[in-house]
Amino acid sequence: MSDTQPEPTLEQRKVIYRARRGLKELDYYFDPYVRTHYLQAEASEQQVFAELVKEEDPDLLDWFLHNHPTKPEFAELIAKLKRLQSAH
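Below the sequence we write its predicted structure tokens.
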């Protein structure tokens, strides 16, 4: 974490840990978001991300890679993670 980011709370640390999937296809989207956006995000977005990383890997792969319809509460955040990655 860079010096410009706030120190993560215990709950934020748990979410960051949970975001490490070990699947390169998911880490491709999660890692940049966690490194550069998660700690500065609004509390509501952090909560949605916390719920997103609780989902099963096959569902996440479908949503990110195969553009299957996602749960409505995740649609906006998944779109954001895809936009962030396409900007790199």
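The chain has one domain: 10-86.
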